[in-house]
Amino acid sequence: MSNLNFLHNEAKKWLYCRFDELDTSSLTDALSWRFGSDIGKKFLLCNGVKRLMPLVVKPKDSHRKCNNLIRDSCLGSNLRLFKFIRLPMTVAGRLLTGDSNLKVIHLLRDPRGMLMSQRRKEYNIEWPIKYCETMLSDLKTSVQLQNIFPGRVTILRYEDLAENPVSIARKLYKFTGIPMRKTVEGYIKEKTSEGKEKSCMLCTQKANSSATASKWRTKIDWRYMKLIDHVCETFYEAAGYVEFKRKADLLNLTFPSKYERDYILK
After folding, report:
1. Where is the Sulfotransferase domain (predicted)?
2. Residue 218 falls within a domain, yes or no?
3. Does residue 177 lie within any of the structural domains?
4. Residue 143 and residue 45 share a domain
5. Cα separations (Å) of 259 from 31, 163, 189, 201, 236?
6. pLDDT of 35 above 90
7. 100 to each of 104, 122, 127, 264, how far by Cα in Å?
8. Which residue stretches of the chain are H helix?
9. CA dist 202 to 38, 74, 147, 199, Å?
10. How many domains does the chain have?
11. Closest CA to 148 of 87, 79, 84, 92
12. Domain co-membership, 63 together with 110
């Protein structure tokens, strides 16, 4: 089985509540369930997960019995929402073809922020090249899918969400076809506004989400960033990211790091 076929089959198991077919490590991954719904937390407890930090997972031999908790909840839900990390958009296209009710939100992020956090001490050019080539390929595929499946694929930049969380959330709710309640709007404001709790270790729900999204600009090494610029230029253009010509512009957080593209949600 090819890697793409494997990913396609695994994604379908999650989307259609076929949890009995998933491997044990996926089912008992605490980070996947910890930030989900209450039923997900109950599922962790059922499987013997004692605490998240430090991560302690002690699945019982009979952990499959716990699948009923999530399967019944999943099958009975009017809306199923899953976040897949780095799922190739070609696989998303196959999923869209097989299910007319499926919608896809393709989340992008400025590669400079991502690559800075993953960088080792040396200036390794191979990873930025591979990373941006993959992101560019996925973005091109998403634009094609927007034309093939009108109204079922939207492309979103993390930075736009961080700058305008409530506005973007309204558009995402509209995209999914469900109303956005006032309680949801209040929750978003609470989690993304200044003066709120900053101790969340593993999530993006930090005070002043816009500042969090642009923090890399004050931390990245100028020479390393220019290396990224060199290999990611084509992706920048496709995704609407600005290449900084002067270090002063990089450090000036009022200087825009992106511009609008017709196919990206704004």
Report:
1. 99-233
2. yes
3. yes
4. no
5. 34, 13, 24, 30, 10
6. no
7. 11, 47, 36, 22
8. 3-15, 24-27, 30-34, 38-46, 67-75, 89-98, 111-118, 126-148, 158-163, 165-176, 182-192, 209-214, 222-239, 247-251
9. 18, 25, 35, 9
10. 2
11. 92
12. no
- 57 and 117, same domain (yes or no): no
CA atoms of 265 and 174, how far apart (whole Å): 12
Provide the pLDDT confidence category of residue 24 given band limits of 50, 70 and 90. Answer: low
Determine which of 45-54, 214-223, 252-261 has the lowest per-residue pLDDT on average. 45-54
Query: Are 109 and 157 in contact, with CB atoms under 8 Å apart?
Result: yes
The pair of structure tokens assigned to 191 is: 């989690």
177 lies in the same domain as 62: no
Per residue in 136-156, pLDDT tens? 999 999 999 999 999 999 999
**Placement of tokens 């009995």 in the chain:** 20
At residue 204, the pLDDT reads: 47
Same domain, 134 and 181: yes
What is the per-residue pLDDT for 248?
97
How far is residue 135's CA from residue 158's CA, in Å, rounded to a whole number?
14
Instruction: Tell whether the model's pLDDT for residue 130 goes beyond 60.
Output: yes
Q: Are 141 and 89 in contact (CB under 8 A)?
A: yes
Contact partners, residue 145, CB within 8 Å, separation at least 6:
89, 92, 93, 96, 104, 152, 153
Q: What does the alpha-carbon distance between residue 141 and residue 194 come to, in Å, rounded to a whole number? A: 37
Specify the range with the lowest mean pLDDT, choosing from 47-61, 181-195, 211-225.
47-61
